[in-house]
Amino acid sequence: MLPNLSEREKEILRLITTDPSITVTSLSELLSVSAVTIRADLSSLESQGLIIRTRGGAHPAFHPEILRRQKSHMEQKHRIARRAAELVEDGDTIIIEAGTTTSLIARYLMGKRNIRIVTNSTLILPYARTNPGIHLSMIGGTFRPETESMVGPAAVAQLESFHVRLAFVGTDGLSVEHGLSSHIAEAAAVLKKMVERADRTVLVADSSKVGKTGFVCVLPFEAVDVLIIDGGISAGAAAEIAQVGIQVIQV
């Protein structure tokens, strides 16, 4: 989402996220451009669903945590998502768990045909709207704005209705000792069910997650078939993960 923005639009979004009460006049002074230019940028950001215009300013349309995570390790996340999308075949059935890396996979499915996606991620909706090759099944549940996800018992129950070839999942932390972990207990139950309903599980994670442990341990590493990760992972960590029997793909 953010890579499509100009540098000025990214800065405007950062300033609005930091101070939702900031005015057009203040933005104009800080960025040394006219108020007319700022209003044009705000209109562009609003059309992309990133902000909500207010009288004299704007508010971010997304939770600040989502915006922070989208900007973190952006280049690596896009490389990982692009490689993950290459595993998807025409006519495939896949699950995509909510996350800033996982949701990008849908962006790189353009050109694929008849892909059926089950997801709890609202970040995927813009890609589904513009890609006629995607048939999206959005599960319900309780909305968590800080992760743009649907979680809870209803989400877990609805996943029982599906069976897919591939599940693409993310993690807040990963290690051979603790496996996959999450900061949100409700998300852990959804991830477990997604893995259960898939023939194979693909973990997509940038290397900053290696060695970290979230609040809730979700799955042992042995539940994962493939790990797609950027080249920032050390050779020792990659070898240790491979010894568990997981295919490690570095991008």
For this structure, the quaternary state is single chain
Number of helices: 10
- Mind telling me which CATH architecture of the largest domain this is? 3-Layer(aba) Sandwich
Rg measurement, Å:
19 Å
Decide which structural class fits the backbone: alpha/beta
Q: What is the level 1 CATH name of the largest domain?
A: Alpha Beta
What is the averaged pLDDT score? 92
Shape: globular
* Major β-sheet strand ordering: 5-4-3-8-11-13-14
Structural domains: how many: 2
Order of helices and strands: HHHEEHHEHEHEEEHEEEHEEEHE
- Level of helix content? 25-40%
What do these coordinates show?
The chain is of the alpha/beta class. The chain has 2 domains: 2-61, Arc Repressor Mutant, subunit A; 69-250, Rossmann fold (3-Layer(aba) Sandwich). It has 10 helices and 14 strands. It has helices at residues 7-18, 24-31, 35-47, 64-71, 74-85, 104-107, 125-130, 153-159, 185-196, 235-243, and strands at residues 51-54, 57-60, 93-96, 115-119, 134-138, 142-144, 149-151, 164-169, 173-175, 179-182, 198-204, 216-219, 226-229, 247-250. The strands form 4 sheets. A 7-stranded parallel beta sheet has the order 5-4-3-8-11-13-14. It has a 3-stranded antiparallel beta sheet with strand order 9-10-12, with helices on one face. Strand 3, helix 6 and strand 4 form a beta-alpha-beta unit. Helix 1 (7-18) crosses helix 3, helix 2 (24-31) crosses helix 3 (35-47) and helix 8 packs parallel to helix 9. The model has no long low-confidence stretch (mean pLDDT 92).
